[in-house]
Amino acid sequence: MANTKNDIISQLQKDILQWEGYRPPPAGKRKLVGLGPVEAAFPNGVFPLGTVHELVCANTEQAAACGGFVSGVLSILMQNGGACLWISLSGNLFPGALKAFGMEPDRVIFVNLTRDKEVLWVMEEALKCAGLAAVIGEMREIDFKQSRRLQLAVEQSRVTGFVLRNRTDKMGSTACAARWKIRPLPSEPVDGLPGLGFPRWQVELLRVRNGQPGNWIMEWSEGKFRPVEKELPEQQKQMAG
Amino acid sequence: MTDWLTLKQPELKEIPFVFATLDRNRIVITAANPVAEAQGVHCGMAAADAKAITTDLRILDHIPGKEAKLLRQLGLWCIRYTPVVMIDLPNGLILDISGCAHLWGGERAYLKEIVNKLRTSGYDARAAIADTIGTAWAIARFGKKTPLVEAGMQAQALLDLPPVALRLEPLILEKLQKLGFSTIRSFIQIPRTVLRRRFGEGFLLRLAQALGLEEETLIPLVPPMPYTERLPCLEPVRTKKAIEIAIQRLLEMLCMRLQNEGKGIRKAILKCYRIDGKMVQAGISTNRGSHSVSHLVKLFELQISKIEPALGIELFLLEAPKVEDIEPLQEKLWDGKPGLQDASLAELLDKLAGKIGANAIHRYLPAEHNWPERSIKQAASLMETPAIKWRIDRLRPVRLLRRPEAIEVMALLPDYPPKVFTYKGRRHVVEKADGPERIEREWWLEQGEHRDYYAVEDTAGHRYWLFRSGHYDDAPQWYLHGFFA
After folding, report:
1. In chain A, which residues have their Cβ closer than 8 Å to the Cβ of B361?
2. CB A196 to CB B455 under 8 A?
3. Residue B13: how many CB atoms within 10 A of its CB?
4. Most CB atoms within 10 A, among B100, B133, B275, B377?
5. For B2-64, CATH number?
6. Are B418 and B411 in contact (CB under 8 A)?
């Protein structure tokens, strides 16, 4: 009896996931974005594509880290020749640097805007366009209603959206699949050589719909994400905040 | 051709000059101006011979395709006299004037009008009217008497002309000359079988065409039709819905034509004539040619708010000043494949450009410049591919400031990376540093100091790109230029 009850519950959980728009990946065709342990935090253990992700970046240093992290994910999404649209408020993104994160900068179309309202309009229109691999929108803030509009737009087209918001004071609820926070961490010297190591980030999943929030340290080295297992010294951890 | 140059450079009017081109190792004259012709220079002559005749002869390079272009322009101008005009290279126009001459008061007045118009605009023109193309051609060039040949009198008109008037091959002309046939009169009575044996079928065909025994067809010049549609309204309209309907109708008409010709709109302008006599217009442009009504209607819908109907619009005019060929086959091939060639992406960009302006949308390609700001350039179109590879050998920041910002720096030793720097009032202690990477200013573009770049990481793990402008002598200025991921 207990067995059947568990079966029913797990079946119901699966159904709920499906009703909420999560399709379980067909066996053996699981699409990974190379995030390793981070992906396990998501429902079905798959990085949700065809949804909107929200990344919180409070300052330019964090925005740069977000840029690097998103480019790393995009390099997988754009593998089959897809194009993406990057809507920028600051207009300081440097295409020449994106190649280092494995993506083709000439397949990115940059849109420079100044107002949140315009960014939201452009982002919603772009998310409806199934010909794009991903849309990245930088904005100051996004409220629940706006995030729901974006989420509704992607449900038809299955385009992946990334919202980079830089105001952190009014973080309400969100309709996005996940809310991330990427912060730069001190890099480790490579083979004891002086100078800078590989870019290293504190990847924090603040909210995941139907998943487990968590905290990881990731590094971008040799064209892929690499999780860093080692615990950092306490003092360094404090400074990272 | 020489007349065209004289029109452009009036000082050449008094000087004998010719156009010449290289033909089988000889420089052969292709066109000579009247002054040169008066001194005995003619087309087909070697330039060296011509120089011997006329000492102050000026020889200019032949411009390939120029005659065709000029004749085409003249031909299009001649369409006001008759709807059927044909270009006859290298130096003639053939007009089919059936049923046109009476509008100018008879053939004589008609001919006079055309020749006078051409002469006053600077072209040395001769013309003739005859029943057949061949005869008209001969009389216009070699006729000494009247330029009008009456119906059925071709043979009489041709009798006194040289054989060259029959548009014959040079080889046949040479043969005729050798046999002593100096006028058409001397061989026109000879039986056809004999002529055929001697000179071949081509000769007989030319003769028959001139005499009107053989049909000759014209290939008429087709003037380009502007891509324009107009829609007058029975009653002046002023509602948004009415304007939408008008746009829909106009686009349907225009796109039908474009589709048949395999073309797509790149730029379109809608002109609305209001009853108060003013005209308002709205324009759209697309990234790739399109003849899809639904897409173009969407683009115009974004512009409707800009149209001020005032008391009402009574006439809509849709113009497509820029169209391009589109390949429907290729479109199908790319369909459904994500990428820059995707048709839906182009449509999206058109839509965005309509709302936020085209200069907010960029795509970048690598450029061959050292200076980081110049190492990228804007792509001209969606189709353009990078000419060189993106460089990854040097570390570049993800966020690059448009304008480097000045910082205050403390370095332990000259040419050492800074130990502490202050940016926007915050003090950063540098933990690790890479550099310097010296980037020289491109002296062929501008003068100035070089930059020594350092990639630094502060104790919090933030990574920056700093540079020092110039050498480390008295008080160098430091700047922050970018943020690494």
Report:
1. 109-111
2. yes
3. 12
4. B133
5. 3.40.1170.60
6. yes
Of B352, B379, B484, the CB nearest to A64: B484
Query: Would the ipTM clear 0.85, i.e. be above it?
Result: no
Domain-wise residue ranges, chain B: 2-64, 83-211, 228-354, 362-392, 399-483
CATH architecture, domain defined by B228-354: 2-Layer Sandwich (3.30)
10-residue mean pLDDT profile of chain B (485 residues): values are 71 76 79 77 77 78 79 81 78 80 80 83 79 82 76 76 79 82 79 81 81 77 78 86 88 85 85 87 83 84 83 87 70 53 80 83 86 84 81 85 89 83 90 86 84 90 89 82 89
Check: CB of residue B16 under 8 Å from CB of residue B54.
yes
- Three-point CA angle A48, A54, A60, nearest 5°: 135
Whole-angstrom distance, CA of residue B184 vs CA of residue B207: 10
Please name which of A128, A187, A158 lies closest in space to residue A23, comparing C-alpha atoms.
A158
- For helices B170-178 and B192-199, the axis angle rounded to 10 degrees is 110
Structure tokens at A235: 């003092």
Q: So what's the pLDDT on residue A54?
A: 92
Per-residue tokens: A93: 């993104």
Beta carbons within 8 Å of A37's beta carbon, 6+ residues apart? A216, A227
CB B27 within 8 A of CB B48: yes
Exposed, middle or buried, B217 (CB in 10 Å: 0-12/13-18/19+)? Answer: exposed
Helix (H, G, I), strand (E, B) or coil at B180: coil
For B99, other C-beta atoms within 10 Å of its C-beta total 9
pLDDT tens sequence across A43-83: 777 788 888 999 998 888 888 999 999 998 888 888 877 88
Q: How many residues does chain A have?
A: 241
Task: State the pLDDT at residue B335.
Answer: 47
User: What is the model's pLDDT at position B332?
Assistant: 45
A189 contacts in chain B (CB < 8 Å)? 432
pLDDT of residue B295: 85
A92 contacts in B (CB within 8 Å)?
Answer: 399-402
Give the DSSP H/E element, type plus range, for residue B4.
Answer: helix B2-8
Tokens found for residue B75: 């031909």
Q: Which long-range contacts (CB under 8 A, 24 or more apart) does A167-173 make?
A: A167/A140, A167/A141, A168/A56, A168/A58, A170/A141, A170/A143, A171/A56, A172/A143, A172/A144, A173/A144
Indicate if the pLDDT at residue A162 is higher than 90.
yes
Mutate to test the interface with B, among A49, A55, A61, A99 (most CBs of B within 10 A): A61
CA dihedral A188, A222, A240, A177 (to 10 degrees): -160
- Answer whether B187's CB lies under 8 Å from B162's CB: no
Which residue ranges form the domains of chain A, and what is each CATH number?
49-189+197-240 (3.40.50.300)
- Written as six digits, the tokens of B471 are 């050498």
Closest of B484, B450, B442 to residue B464, by C-alpha: B484
Residue A101 per-residue DSSP state: G
Token output for B217: 């067809």
What distance in Å separates residue B435's CA from the closest CA in chain A?
Answer: 8
For residue B452, give the amino acid letter. D
